[in-house]
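Predict the 3D structure for this chain.
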Amino acid sequence: INCTMQIDAHMKSKEEIIEMVAKEYAECKPGNWIIGDGWNNEYWKDSSFPTRHELDEVAPDYFKTGLKIGKYGNRMTVRSFKISSDGSMGARSAWLLEDYSDRPGHRGNRKFTDEQMYNVLKLAFEHGFQPVIHCIGDACVKQCLDVLEKIKDEMPLNDHRMRIEHSQVVREVDIPRYVKLGVIPSFQPIAIMADKLVAEERVGKERMEFAYAWRKFIDAGCKIVPISSDAPIDPINPFANMYAAVTRKDMEGKPECGWYVINAMTREEALKGTTIMGAKAAFEENIKGSIEKGK
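Done. Predicted structure below.
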């Protein structure tokens, strides 16, 4: 696939993004693709979700796509089994145990029954794969922990390192279960730069005490706490991610005192989370993640 430009939509208005697409469309040749990532409708004056029709008006003959797996070389380790088990906070599709605070009667999107999740996880474990599960909401987290607990009662799982990606909204009682079951909470601190605009509206102050609660997981005894970028959803820059982990602020330094700063990481924790903890979370600590002899 030929591509003359990747549009960086981070912190851009809808109008700016459409203008960028129009400019690229005017220069594109048939067969080229216009790609882009990073938009966040919560920054827009009209925060309603965009539609393809708005892009079709300025680029009617082209497909639009995100980044492609395998596009950047042939070095790949196949070890993990990724499962997307709910949605996102912004779209109110994260699966919650209680109603969304700003949409009574709505609890998000459940993607798997307990039986389906059990079958998928057990199949992964039986074939030596490391399950990596996307979970934003507390209902989704609880389901994964419940199913893992059942599987561990049925078969030995030594050093399985199952990861729950995001672990954004979690019940207080479930945090120590990560430790007991050997589950790795994988965090993306940079996400708070955008999520701080909507999270409290979505789940309310009471649930926010255990939302984006990196400090609480560390204090509870989680030994492997990696930081990932979630690129291309957010910029891949590791320094921006570490900055967010430590300060709980956006790139403009807001809010001044940090957003729920009680759950911030230390600088050492953020550095290790970006390096050696990430390597351990992928079973690669013997070949990467630190600067030492033999690596």
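The CA atoms of residues 286 and 292 lie 10 Å apart.
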